[in-house]
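Fold it.
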Amino acid sequence: MNTDIKQIQIIVSLLKQFSIRKIVISPGTRHVPLVHIVETDPFFECYSIVDERSAGYFALGLSEASSEPVCITCTSATATCNYMPAMQEAYERHIQLIALTADRARYQRFHGENQCINQVDMFRPFVRYAVDTPDVINKEDYWYCNRCVNEALLELSRPEKGPIQINFLEPLSIIRLSSFTNSEIPPTRKIDRIDAPNWVELNNKLHCYKRILVLCGQYNKSSILNDGLQSFIKRYNAVITFDYFSNVENPSFIQTALFSEIMNSEEVSLLKPDLIISFGTKVYSVLGVKYRGCNIEHWHIDPSGRVYDSIHSLKEIFAVKPEVFFESLQNIQGDELYSDGTYLNLWNKAISRIDPTIHGFSNHYVIRKTLEKLPAHSTVHASVLNAMRLTNYSKIPGETEVMGNICADGIDGALSSFIAQATDFDGLALLVIGDLSYLYDLNASFSSLPDNTRILVVNNYAGGEFHYNISESRINTLNLHIAAGHHTCIGDTIAFSNLSYLSASNDKELDDALSSFYEQSVGPVLLEVFTDANRDGEDLRAFLSKNRKLTKRNKIGVLVKRMLGEKLTVKLKAIVNGYREN
């Protein structure tokens, strides 16, 4: 038995894949599609209890007796409230109840619809996990709904067991609610969490993949991890990709922060892997996004076992430290299968086309020159947006640890975070920061900064990111509010701190300042370099444009734009798209 309601298809398919058979059902309307499918499927064991409060306790006893997760499902509104006592009991006693609560459509909440209360997170203090699944209209909705249900069901396997809630929406019509076909429920993706991998089996499985792409995300420097990654690239047909926040280092690894921005569709296809492995709090480069929706199997390594589905194709989570994962594979003996290097050679050839030349004095030029002269064994904190981007587009000396608040990625707090990191670091500590970010966190500089502190402030008197992404040619009032243009010199603020001050406004002055910037000193040093926000944005766009290798289709588009101009090209696209839709 099947229904065209995607939410129900996903829930039923995953219940079966997670081997969850027992369902205690109370009568009602909202959950009819779910109930009729499970009651006609011999896989499920269904029990009918009219009173939801009794049904909750019945399921609790059934779960405790069988040592299996048990579902309870009912219609919307106060029916769901009646599960509360049993859910609280299950929480306290670590019993695996699954509350499948049917709900009205989202837009009906809080507007007087019958049998419509706020069911979202209604059991929040007493469940291990709760999800409010979306109405599935498109591919993105389907991925999100699948991910939500997987996340909830995976919580059942945690050592500290307990109840969960999956809140799902009813269809908008009774016809859909009660329409079924005699086909099978289509399978949906199941995400597995592996707490204790069988390393020999995993090694054999990895050798079945011809192209393995490892995405190294933000992580602290680790020699054990670095050695494990080096062994991995030799043992398997693998490519190790990283950005500087990954803090891994080897000539065979490939820095992809810049290349992931400029690679075209032909290169995406040419370099496409058949397995992606990721680790770290966040992968800074957009390489994973390029392969989103390509149905490439994705494994994520995370000791907490969290669901990190950034590529929309996660299949396995390894709940171990990355060091353990790669070192354990490295220690397998008697394996004579080694990489032939063909996949790595493809990547090296593609990367080699990048032209790193910078023309003109800009924030990109300033950050690159400053990092080129950075002594080895230093630490760098890149503040936000352009500082992070341009740091990753530059060359950093070996044995340098790179940090940044890249997950929330906000303008606030970079200076404070950096000062704390510099205080706890013996070597030279450099902060790369823009004027707005520095001024936002200015109070942090009024304390006594450690002597190893070096701060590069690129001051273009505005939010440089907006001049890159938008530019004054599109919005001529950009500096008024969007880019927050100002006339503040950072040098005027350091009288409140123990910072020494250097400044530069051109390449010669920058060279002169850098000649003493990194020297040992009796106190911390701030170097303020003045650039032009418009020029910074123009130069970065030109740099990326120069390095983008156009496909034949893109070349035609560029030619049309040159002939017609941007405004006419936009109009022509609108006409073509309108014709296609009709």
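Residues 421 and 429 are 8 Å apart (CA to CA).
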